[in-house]
Every structure is written in C-alpha cells, then in structure tokens.
Amino acid sequence: xxxxxxxxxxxxxxxLESVEAxxxxxxxxxxxxxxxxKRRAQLGLVPTMGYLHAGHLSLVERAKEECDFVxxxxxxxxxxxxxxxxxxxxxxxLEGDLSLLGSAGVDCVFSPSTEEVYGDLKKATTxxxxxxxxxxxxxxSFRPGHFEGVATIVNKLFNMVQPDIAYFxxxxxxxxxxxxxxxxxxxxxLNIQGVPIVREPDGLAMSSRNVYLSQNGRKKAVTIHEVxxxxxxxxxxxxxxxxxxxEGRTKLESTGFEVQYLEACDIDTLEPASQPKKPxxxxxxxxxxxxxxxxxxxxx
Length: 300
Ligand code: PAF
Known about the structure:
This protein has helices at residues 19-30, 54-66, 94-103, 114-118, 132-135, 139-142, 146-161, 173-185, 215-221, 223-236, 241-255, and strands spanning 14-16, 43-48, 69-74, 108-110, 165-169, 191-195, 258-266, 280-288, 291-299. With 300 residues, it is α/β, with parallel strands linked by helices. The strands form two sheets. It has a six-stranded parallel sheet with strand order 1-4-3-2-5-6, sandwiched between helices. Helix 7 (146-161) packs across helix 8 (173-185).
C-alpha cells in the first residue's frame, strides 16, 4: 500500500473545553475514511499544564513534523499535586498560551475544566496505579500519589483525544518511563515520543516553575546543570560515581539548595547504577527559594 501525506493542515486554532466538542472536532478533522492509496491522517497530542515555554514549543514542533494534525491539552491536574504542593499557585496564563500555540500552527487546544475531566473530584475516581518498582523512588518517594495522578490524567487524555503519537519532555524523565510503562502494560494503541530538554542560555532546564525563582535564586539555579555536567565528566573519566555524586550534593547544598536526590540510575529501571556498564541517567531534584526544580542528564 502506498502512503501519501494528508494535505489538510488548516492553521485554524480550535479551542475546545468539552469532551463532546473534542469528539466532534476529531470526527470532522480525522473522520473521513482514507481514500485509495492514502493513509489515515495522524493526530499528535502534546499534553501540558499550560504556562508554556520554549520546551513545550519544541514538543509542538516535533509533533508538527511527524503528524498531520496537532492537539495540545492545557489542564492543571489537581490529582497529581499533594495537599501541601503548589496546585493553587501553579502559574496559569491561558491567553498567552493560546497566542503562542496559534503562532506555532497548532490545530486544536483542549482546555477543559476540572469538572469536565473528573466530575465531582471530592468523590473517589478510578485511578491508574503505576508499578511500585518504578514509582517507589526519586520523585515518587518525595511526592506520594503524584505518579498515580499523572498516569490517570494521561490515560484519560489519551481516551479523550485518541492520538496516534503523544509527546512528552525528557526533563520529567521518571514521568516519561511511567507513561511508557502504562502504555505497554495496558496495551494502549499509540506511540510515546520523548523530546530532549530545552535549556536557557546558561543551562537551566526550562520549566514553568522557574518563574517562581527570585532574581538571586534564578542566578543560582544553574548550579543543578553545572553539577550534573561535572558528575557526567567524572563518570566519563572513570572516576568514582559515588564520590562525584557526594561532591555534587555538597556543591548544591553550599549554594543554598535543599537536595531531595542526586542519583545515577539505570536508564530503564531507575535502579542505582554505581558501576555503569550501559548508559545511565543522572537525576536531580532540589528546592531553591522553596521552588522544586528537577533536571537530568544521560551519560552514554
Ligand atoms: O508534564 C506535565 O506537564 C504533566 O505532568 C502532564 C503530563 C501534562 C500531566 O498532567
């Protein structure tokens, strides 16, 4: 069978707030059966919590390269925030986001209310529980319930949008593994695409939460990237992994960070990797100005 690209990108940004409107858009946009010799149009989804930056736009760019239509969801998911976390003050700017996504040539933005997604959230909802071996460590041990909330909303978004490919940033490395595992374990019919971290010119990984940093904190925040780079160099020079990690923790603490973890892990299982034989991932989470920052770096 020969395939050709579906030439139908509309450049009209549809902003949808209900699942019904989304289904209608999907039917209108993708519903026609493929003509002889043509394949079905591919839909890419970029799930976000809004307050978009260049990192999100790189996911959109990748989706546009690979798919005929691109949908972006904007939903600050209450289920993935703990009781003492920053759900209420998580930054929001729907108007700014829509303007960025319009210029980026996205076809559809799905921005539902909490009620549209969960109904009455005070009532317990069915949840997806990722395997313990993947969430009993790193972010999972500092944020109990977080990955259940992520897996649940991502599963719901997949069911609502029914994308062919979904795009996630590699900055949330553990989240990406949780989502890949869910798709595998639950036989979901889509592909997951990880997209590399986008950094500020000084090396700080882009994040919606960077906006919370004080001016001084913003200057210091780059230390996470510096520490990851020096641990990577130490490993490449065959120096002791544990000594390099200990040095890194000390450097972060002396800069004013409260370090939650700085670890070298197996890229697939996230088990500690003290004598790396295959590529490993260095992962860090640390608080500065009470802002929780995460970052990571692969060592081949
Ligand atoms: O990475 C995020 O922004 C969120 O965790 C996600 C994947 C959109 C789910 O709410």
